[in-house]
Amino acid sequence: MLRFLVARLISAIPVLVGVSIAVFLMIHLLPGDPATIMLQGAPASAQDIQNLRHQLGLDEPLYTQYFRWLDRVVHGDFGVSIHTRRPVLTEITTVFPSTLQLAMAAMVVALGMGITLGILAALHQNTWIDTLSMGIALFGVSMPDFWVGLLLILVFAVYFHWFPVAGIGGLNYLVLPAVALGANFSAITARLVRSNMLEVLRQEYVLTARAKGLTQWRVVVIHTLRNALIPVVTIVGLQFGNLLGGAVVIETVFARQGLGQLAVTAILGKDFPLIQGIVLVAAIVYVFVNIFVDLLYTLLDPRIRPESLA
User: Fold this and answer.
1) Cβ contacts of residue 26 below 8 Å, gap of 6+?
2) Structure confidence at residue 223 as a pLDDT band (50, 70, 90)
3) Is the pLDDT higher at 73 or at 238?
4) In which element (H, E) is residue 307 found?
5) Distance between CA 60 and CA 72 in Å, rounded?
6) How far apart are CA 274 and CA 262, in angstroms?
7) pLDDT (tens digit, 9 = 90+) per residue, 11-66?
8) What DSSP element (H or E) covers 188?
9) Side-chain-side CA neighbours of residue 19 (13 Å)
10) Model confidence at 121: pLDDT above 60
C-alpha cells in the first residue's frame, strides 16, 4: 500500500507541473499588457503601470518569471492580492473551509440519495417505484444547479420558513446549498447504481446466496451493493472536482462566502495573482482526491491490489 501511495504521488508531480505551467501562462495569454488590464478603470500613470510590471516580475524573461513563481509557490508563497494587498494563500485559506464543507455535504447528499434511489429502482425493476426513482433522477440531471437552488429557496425558505434563505451559520444554513449542489450528482449516482445492481443481482454468487436462505438485507448489502458501488467510486473523484467548480454558482445563489465567491470577485476585479492561486489550489485538491479514491478500491474489493492501479 505504501509503495502504491508513493508511486501515485510521484506520478502526480508531472500533472501538477503541467497545471502550474497552464496557470502561470494564464496571465500571459490575455491580449494586451496584464499590468494595464489590472489597473484598468483606475487613475494610473505610466509609472504606476511600470511599477506594477516590476512588482509582478513582468519585465523579466518568461522562463525566469515561471521558475521564480514556481519557487515561491513550492515554499507556500502564492503572491499578493492586487486589491486587498493580503497574501493570496491567506485569502484562499480563509474561505476554503466553507467551500470544502459545502462540497463534502453535497457529496454526502448525492451519495445518500443516489444510492438509495438506485437500490430501490433495481430491487423493484419495471414497477412504479422504479419509474418514480428514475423520474426523480431524470429531474436531477435535467435541472441546472442554480435553478434547483432557487426552487429550494422559494419552497423551503420563503414559503415554509424551514431554512434560512442565505448566508453561513449552523447546519440549517448548509442543507439547501448541499442539496442544490448534490442534486445532479445524486441523479447520476442513482442511474449508475441501478444499472450495476441489476447486473450484479444476476450473478451466480448472488443466486447462490439467496438459495442458501440469506435475508434480502444481507444479499443486497453484503453481496450485491459492495460490488455495485465500485463503478460509483470511479466517478466520485471526477464529480468532486465538479462539485468544487459548481460551488461557484451555488455560493453566489445562497450568498455564501467561499472559494467560488472569491474566484468571481477576483475575476471581476482582474486580480490575476488571486485567480492563479485559486485555480492551482483547486487542481491540487482534485489530484489528491483522485489518489484517495484509488485507495478506496482495495477496501471495496480485496481482489483489487494497489499494484494493479499504479
Assistant:
1) 272, 275, 276, 279
2) low
3) 73
4) helix 306-309
5) 16
6) 9
7) 778 888 888 888 778 767 766 666 676 666 666 677 777 777 777 777 777 788 78
8) helix 172-201
9) 18
10) yes
Cα 279 to Cα 290: distance, rounded to the nearest angstrom: 17
DSSP 30: S
Nearest to 90, CA basis, from 101, 102, 82, 78: 78
Residue 122 Cα distances to 29, 41, 116, 118, 211, angstroms: 50, 59, 10, 6, 19
> How many residues are present in the chain?
310
Please name each of the domains of the chain with its CATH number: 15-88 (no CATH), 89-309 (1.10.3720.10)
Record the cell numbers describing residue 100, joined without a space: 470544502
> What span, in angstroms and rounded, lies between the C-alpha atoms of 20 and 16?
6
> Distance (Å, rounded) from C-alpha 146 to C-alpha 176?
11
* Backbone torsions φ then ψ of 80, nearest 5 degrees: -125, 135
